């Protein structure tokens, strides 16, 4: 780990439940986890194992009930809403439901990803550059209704990355993509980790991309059943702002 940089995510004693009274059900139980900066971590497990709940807690989208969650040095347990909003500005999100604005073009949708991160040098050019890297250079001015499902998902990926987030949270980002497109997206995320220090936590059932992971976590019944670190995993890098669009 690079000097002076703590882990991107540190979790201790994290538990979470839904429901009240007799209907109350624990979906996460005593999770302890450190994720160094720059790692691409894949989170696997059967439906109902707690993967998406864990993702939303670490992504500052849900309040911590029990335990400690530190994201980029910020404790989320007991954090006020303003603190959660501030933390989210340093994060990027890719969901299976792309949630594009139907009245905006692909380029405009990606530029919307800049709103939470503030102005970045060359960011407007970076939006077009990212779409080009994802094979959408000829679709910049198309509306979502004119795009296929896989193309919409790639626009959503570009929107998540254009603000140069420190951590990317991805929930089934390759589900709507063919093998080649899905691999290209994950290879880009892995490269960002190795070259720029971007951390990615990805929920997936896509066995085609497992070899690209630095680490694979398997959840079962709300607990981490297996934690496999791959050889040559990413080391921490100092986060850099802006994009090289050469």
UniProtKB/TrEMBL annotation:
It comes from the Bacteria. Keywords: ATP-binding, Nucleotide-binding, Transport. It holds the Pfam family ABC_tran. PROSITE patterns: ABC_TRANSPORTER_1, ABC_TRANSPORTER_2. Residues 9-246 form the ABC transporter domain. The keyword Translocase does not apply. One of its GO terms (molecular function) is ATP binding. NCBIfam families: heterocyst_DevA (TIGR02982). This is ATP-binding cassette domain-containing protein. It comes from Falsiroseomonas tokyonensis.
């Amino acid at each position: 780990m690079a000097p002076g940089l703590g882990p991107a995510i540190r979790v201790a004693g994290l538990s979470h439940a839904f429901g009240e009274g007799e209907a109350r059900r624990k979906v996460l139980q005593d999770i302890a986890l450190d994720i160094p900066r720059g790692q691409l971590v894949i989170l696997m497990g059967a439906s109902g194992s707690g993967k998406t709940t864990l993702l939303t807690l670490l992504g500052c989208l849900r309040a911590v009930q029990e335990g400690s969650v530190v994201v980029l040095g910020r404790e989320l347990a007991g954090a006020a809403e303003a603190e959660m909003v501030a933390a989210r500005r340093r994060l990027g999100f890719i969901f299976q439901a792309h949630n594009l604005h139907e009245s905006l073009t692909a380029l405009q949708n990606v530029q919307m990803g800049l709103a939470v991160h503030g102005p970045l040098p060359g960011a407007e050019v970076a939006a077009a550059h990212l779409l080009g890297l994802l094979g959408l250079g000829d679709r910049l001015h198309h509306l979502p209704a004119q795009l296929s499902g896989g193309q919409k998902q790639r626009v959503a990926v570009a929107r998540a990355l254009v603000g140069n987030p420190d951590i990317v949270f991805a929930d089934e980002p390759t589900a709507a993509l063919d093998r080649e497109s899905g691999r290209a997206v994950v290879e880009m995320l892995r490269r960002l980790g190795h070259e720029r220090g971007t951390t990615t936590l990805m929920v997936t059932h896509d066995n085609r991309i497992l070899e690209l992971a630095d680490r694979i976590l398997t959840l079962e019944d709300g607990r981490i059943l297996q934690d496999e670190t791959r050889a040559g995993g990413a080391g921490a890098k100092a986060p850099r702002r802006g994009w090289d669009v050469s």
